[in-house]
Amino acid sequence: MSLKNLENVSYFRLNNEINIPINGQIPLHKDHEALLAFFEENVQPNLKTFPTVADKISYLLENNYIEQDFISKYEIAFITQLSDWLYAQNFQFKSFMAAYKFYQQYALKTNDGEFYLENIEDRILMNALYFADGDTALAQALADELINQRYQPATPSFLNAGRARRGELVSCFLIQPTDDMNSIGRSVNSALQLSRIGGGVGINLSNLREAGAQIKGIENAASGVVPVMKLYEDSFSYSNQLGQRQGAGVTYLSVFHPDILAFLSTKKENADEKIRVKTLSLGVTVPDKYYQLVRENADMFLFSPYDVERIYGVPFSYVDLTSEYDKMVANANIKKYHIRARDLEQEIAKLQQESGYPYIVNIDTANHANPIHGKIVMSNLCSEILQVQTPSILNDEQTYQHLGTDISCNLGSTNVVNLMKTPNFEKSIDSMVKALTFITNHSEIDVVPSIKNGNSRAHTIGLGAMGLHSYFAQNHIVYGSPESIEFTDIYFMLLNFYTLKSSMNIARTTGIKFADFEKSTYADGSYFDSFIGEAQLSEQIATLFNGIHIPTADDWKALQKDVMSFGLYHQNRLAVAPNGSISYINDVSASIHPITQRIEERQEKKTGKIYYPARDLATDTIPYYTSAYDMDMRRVIDVYAAATRHVDQGLSLTLFMRSEIPLGIYDWKTDTKQTTRDLNILRNYAHHKGVKSIYYVRTFTDNGDEIGSNHCESCVI
GO CC: one term (predicted)? Predict the structure, then answer.
């Protein structure tokens, strides 16, 4: 038998029997039976084994399965000891889905695809050795975090660590062209190159002049942003990692750009094929001024980026539209276009109902909370990366007159359920920060110099979380309740404090700070002012954090002093991605949003349906596993808002809606039909609560379909 010739297996049938109630009960034991059958019928007969760890390492090296460099940094005795220790932990998958996902998508296989070369202990071993970079103590610490599933590297990192033939370890990229053909051409090449090496690509189009604008004094010469979007879409379709995955990208446009309506029209169901973009995602950057105009039911003006840049001396994205709006309206030298603010708001909501797009980035909210000198102008494919950028200036020969800074994302996630059991919260976080730091230190994206420059200056990472709803259900906490908000606030405060401390210690040890640290609010200490104080915990939440040190006012003051003295190594540290297949391997709910189904139904490409029960689903936890589709999204926004205060980047917030909304969920509704008003209210509520971005709107229809059921394969963790 081999992996290509599996016959008469029973695990799919056993797993599917979860969906057939017995005497009104969910037969969860069938999933455990499927898990056992999977190992007996699939894994064990097809796992290539070796007499010793040394023999296995030699085989993997000789056959070019793993890299020599990182292995040579360790004695084989240590590698053997660490491997033996990992296997002694007796790791057990808790669901069939978890095991199936790991062996299908992450385990190393022979070149012919016939046999497995790794169990999860082996993949963890490679990750620990690779990211520790020869530091045996760190390798042991990382192995501990990974085997106990307190830490999960992003999919590109976990999958590729140590492999000889691999993609990049980073998750996604952000680039921006300016308003000239050299820059546009260079950005198309950058999109091709970045899509080739892995990860989704975010592109900011707000700086480009609108359709019908002048070019060298000729009226109506410019074609606008839509043809450029088509160039990017074709680039991603062509550059698809040798067919292994579809290239993926998102284009962002300012809500005050004259092409905004044409931009949104590219995703409409009835759009002409000449303008329709099928695979490219859409995002809109929204300043505070827009919300004000919508509230006032006022007219709004859209401004020509060419004129704005000519007058202000910076690209359109770098002008503060909220503070400059009235001046720009009054300036006769800026060409402008007139629409009704609520008409545009209606178009955005209608498109979100149809397709789930556009993503929303509350750009002023993001910048007001930003401790870093510079301006955030866009986000990434999943809307959680919010970092400052500077534009590049190109010569006619496509060389750089001025090399700007663009962004690469290095992501990882804490598992809330398991991290709350850690014997040492601070040590756990420190190990995670060091693993992510290895990636940023060893990321050399030479083909896109602005990405390389941004990474080398900023050393950014993005540590997030998964399993929040699972943890709530385990502890009988209602998602969105005051207790859940209090827990979220304290948990992310801990992530913030301990990642700051780790970053400061790396800066103290290396003597290296991120570029322009002195211009940040970390340097003058003002960043810490709102955090210095004693956390007031309710009795229930204090019990949950028993044994975990909650930083005191003195702790914050000491950290403030140290950061001001020694600096920070990382410009950015935290970001909450949407999570994908990795959350299944961790056997917890994805990201920090609620589950969508107690028994989730997944359509796998070649195998059909697989059913995945929520973590620890049982009689006592069922009441706390309310589906996101049956939940007031304002409660979800409240949870995200509690985390947002502590996260220096963003959180990938998805809104889950039903096409027919049961009465009683929303107090403003008198009928069940989902309307654009519902989405308008929720977007405005999120803005009011200080949420920086909304990733996606998913609508569950009466026939069981999901509109806008986007599965980002790049930034998922």
Answer: ribonucleoside-diphosphate reductase complex
